[in-house]
Design goal:
This protein is mainly alpha-helical. The chain has three helices and no strands. It is globular, with a radius of gyration of 15 Å.
Length: 75
């Protein structure tokens, strides 16, 4: 059975803990009651996946229809 996670009300900023857990979920963190806090490897995997999602949005999302695609650059 699928469960909807808590979403903040519109206009209310996320807490730091919620933001970290959302990124960790992308990296494979399950966020069960007794799991504790996510580790660095899980956070790293989540950040890499978030960068991939952002790049795909730039390449294929609504901004791509308006003009040429822009690639993310890492410094």
């Amino acid at each position: 059975m699928w469960k909807v996670t808590r979403k903040p009300p519109v206009g209310e900023p996320l807490s730091r803990r919620d933001a970290v857990r959302m990124i960790a979920r992308l990296g494979g963190f399950l966020a069960r009651k007794r799991d504790g806090e996510p580790g660095m490897i899980t956070l790293w995997r989540g950040l890499v996946r978030l960068a991939d999602i952002a790049e795909c949005y730039l390449l294929f999302g609504p901004p791509a229809r308006d003009g040429p695609a822009t690639r993310l650059t890492y410094t």
